[in-house]
Amino acid sequence: MGNSGSAVKVCADHQGGINWLSLSPDGQRLLTGSEDGTARLWSTADSQCHGHFQGHESYITFCHLENEAAFTCSADHTIRKWDVMTGQCLAIYRGHTSIVNRILVAKDYLFSGSYDRTARCWSVDKEKQIQEFRGHRNCVLTLAHYSSRDVLEEEEEEEQEEEKVSRDLLVTGSTDCTVKVWWVSSGRCYQTLLGHTGAVLCLILDAPNRELFSGSTDYTIRTWNIVTGEQLKVFKEHQGSVICLELVNRHLYSGSADRTVKCWLVDTGERIQTYKAHKHSVSTLKYHAGILFTGSGDACARAFNSKSGVLQKIFRGHKFIINCIQIHNELLYTASHDGTLRIWDIRGICKRNKRRLKKERSAQGRGSQKGSLSRLFNNKVGCMVQQENGE
Q1: Residue 271 region, left (φ>0) first, then alpha (ψ -120 to 50), else beta?
Q2: How far apart are CA 27 and CA 387, in angstroms?
Q3: Average pLDDT score over residue span 117-126
Q4: CA 91 vs CA 99, 110, 123, 160, 266: distances in Å
Q5: How far apart are CA 157 and CA 353, in angstroms?
Q6: Are 177 and 196 in contact (CB under 8 A)?
Q7: Which class for 365: exposed (0-12), middle (13-18), buried (19 or more C-beta within 10 A)?
Q8: What are the structural domains of the chain?
Q9: Residue 190: its pLDDT value, please?
């Protein structure tokens, strides 16, 4: 394992901690939202700041970047939409009565979750609130969205009375220990998922498999059938709050306050790997090309071989917790509460990992070929024995 030198670049334009980092769908830009009440737009081509969005009256909690528009939410109770080319504020969404801590953009909808115990749906273009989702007994921390057509068969859809109006559903996780599923069109709660005994901190949705995963301060991850609301499995081995989740190829990765990440087989619930070495909570994680990247409260980012669990590299330089990471063009971007965005070259790790994967596949191929020859030989021997016995 080699430790890193310094970052390729340190971007220190913000005057306060960076709470979130978002990558545009086309990979050309990054957006950072900060405690200083501003957001900044960065080019992935030259790593320069190309936009400074000012207007919020308090710190920015979360941000989301599309190709042509940026969205930020704030402790000033508002959400703002920005033009990425001009930096102009295009819309202000008002209605929440407390800190807005999470936003999600899906199709023409903008969803938000707040400490005021509500989630809301807005028209992206009309600056207008479409729906309010009221029913949680405490703040809404995390959001997910899906369409019923993603999870229901045609005959099942016909049974849903709301389907005639809208197919969209919103999922909310709250500090009241529940997950709720709502019809977007009516604001009606479709299901309340009960089981957690602590705040729900993170959600991840696998709509094609009708599954929802939730991580909580009760140290567990739970998986739910989002059609029936049935709790399918409980993953129990963490010894601290589950802070972040990542789902890749039916493998679930969970980062925890117990200073570890664990990898689980979704289909069986078996824990197959634990990634150690963190000296504080694991605050964020990202899977890329067979490598698991993590950010921690110990101010370091790390790279693990996702299969073996071996620590491959430590990225040192930040002074406080790493809140978010992104990966693009074999560059790792880390955003920290120390106010800096750091950029790291991960080509070496990716290249080594690709070589390792190639060797493993080649070895598996040879093993498979040997197995085929062995089966062929055994079949021939079997036929000869049968012929000798006159069968």
Answers
A1: beta
A2: 65
A3: 94
A4: 18, 12, 11, 35, 41
A5: 44
A6: yes
A7: exposed
A8: 260-359 (2.40.128.630)
A9: 94
